Amino acid sequence: MDQDYERRLLRQINHQNLPAEPRQAKCVSAACSPVSVKSGDRFIPTRAGSNWSINFHYANENCRSPDQSHKAKDASSDSSKDAVAYAALLRNELLGAGIESVPDPHTDERRHAVLSQDSRSLFRYTVHAKGVPFDSDRDVSPYSLSPLSNKSHKLLRSPRKPARKISKIPFKVLDAPELQDDFYLNLVDWSAGNLLSVGLGACVYLWSACTSQVTRLCDLSVDGDSVTSVCWNERGGLVAVGTHKGYVQIWDAAGGRKLTTLEGHSARVGALAWNGEQLSSGSRDRVILQRDIRTPPTAERRLQGHRQEVCGLKWSPDHQHLASGGNDNKLLVWNSSSLLPVQQYSDHLAAVKAIAWSPHQHGLLASGGGTADRCLRFWNTLTGQALQSTDTGSQVCNLAWSKHANELVSTHGYSQNQILVWKYPSLTQVAKLTGHSYRVLYLAVSPDGEAIVTGAGDETLRFWNVFSKTRCTKESKSVLNLFTRIR
After folding, report:
1. Does the pLDDT at position 38 exceed 60?
2. Which residues form the CDC20/Fizzy WD40 domain (predicted)?
3. CA distance 212 to 461
């Protein structure tokens, strides 16, 4: 036998008899021969079942900074929406994503929050047993010259939601001489009959939004008194006027005559709230009086719970609960029968004047704090729990919910003097309006729910279009909807 051949054969037998670990270490340290390892010299993974586009999209969302995600939420311009549509079109043609409509980032906030928690890897070399065809339902005409797929055609034909644009310039500005710069007063209110009542010094003026005519309702200078609050009833025929001496006067706006004068308070009445035929008044004497204008003035309910001036009053939409805010930093909730508050919230660090009940969610209450607090807080009055809060950066003077969408507007004082529109529950800012040079202390919503009016110590009233009346309705594809079957 040849000696060289015998030497190579013994070396191969000794190599096969070695333990597993030394052989593995040897193959790692040196290049393994084709005889010992039964595989090719290159590993090319099969990536047919890997959806790289979706995984890469997840990775980009996970790596996005909070500032970038906030800017993405606030993006509502036409250019940004065109970019989203173009990206969806590219994903359809290059990656076979199958997108048929342009996604809306504002409506997909919850989906983005879920995707951000996904920790799947970017590259996965898994092969599905059954592959999905690139475009299984391609029904484009064979005579079509368009290179786009059926999904892309549906994407281009999908209806585009018009971009919401809120004008940052008021559509009307009125002079309001002697409009007081006092945080604890409520001197502006808008009636269901489209009349605006404004307390200027010792007089109450009515401005008609239909005819733009101004009439003087009353003048308290004869009695040496001044106006501290005004409030319309729900039907818009009666207006309550609170005075500096503690009186509450009920006036008939159509006839221009005073119906009655209610006594009981020993200090100025800065907050008023109607509940049907009942009127609640909050005063600097720390007492809330609830009276029915159909009964004698002696039939009244005294609600005592605040330790300082009552500056905010609002009845719930179901007429069952009254929310009151005071200079003692307390927010109290009363029911229609008890003389003691059923709930008390003490999280605010300053006076609570801004109060608003949500017309969309039962029991949802929003409140805002003064200069030392600057926070918007939301409460579930059904369970007594605090839901969420956000720091606005300036004094919160007023709050009002939109009648048509789950949004609310807030007016602010020190130090921004701005008007903010919020989307709930994400609490993203839809718009920021500026123009007042003093604190925006007064706020009222038009009867149609589209416009607001703001007043400030700069003695101006500014009208803004902030809320949209149209709702976003999606087409129902249910077989139970008979209207979709009508041709």
Report:
1. no
2. 174-464
3. 13
| Helix residue ranges per DSSP H, 345-426 | none
Q: SS3 string of 41-104?
A: CCCCCCCCCCCHHHHHHHHHHHCCCHHHHHHHHHCCCHHHHHHHHHHHHHHHHHHCCCCCCCCC
Per-residue pLDDT at 477: 47
- Pick from 269, 267, 249: nearest CA to 258: 249
Please count the CA atoms within 13 angstroms of the CA of 51 that sit on its side-chain side: 16
Asked if residue 131 has pLDDT above 50, the reply is no
pLDDT of residue 86: 81
Q: Do 245 and 221 touch, CB atoms closer than 8 A?
A: no
Q: In angstroms, rounded to a whole number, what is the distance separating the alpha carbons of residues 358 and 271?
A: 19
Average pLDDT over residues 447-459: 94
Is-contact 261 249, C-beta < 8 A? Answer: yes
Beta bridge partners of 452: 445, 464
**Is the omega angle on the peptide bond into residue 415 within 30 degrees of 0, that is, cis?**
yes
Indicate the pTM of the whole model.
Answer: 0.70
Do 250 and 268 contact (CB within 8 A), yes or no?
no
Strands (E) across 209-351 are located at: 214-219, 227-232, 238-243, 248-252, 257-262, 269-275, 278-283, 287-292, 300-304, 310-315, 321-326, 331-335, 343-345
Number of H helices, E strands in the chain: 7, 28
Over its C-alpha atoms, the chain yields an Rg (Å, rounded) of 34
> How far is 336 from 301, CA to CA, in rounded Å?
10
Q: Are 259 and 272 in contact (CB under 8 A)?
A: no
Average pLDDT, integer, range 112-141: 47
Q: What is the mean pLDDT of the chain?
A: 80
Type of residue at 200: L
Domains (range + CATH), the chain: 175-396 (2.130.10.10)
- Are 467 and 450 spatial neighbours (Cβ–Cβ below 8 Å)? yes
**pLDDT grade for 2, boundaries at 50, 70 and 90:** low
Inter-residue long-range contacts of 122-125, CB under 8 Å, 24+ positions, other chains counted: 122/52, 122/55, 122/56, 122/58, 122/59, 123/50, 123/52, 123/55, 124/50, 124/55, 125/45, 125/46, 125/47, 125/50
456 neighbors 436 (Cβ within 8 angstroms): yes
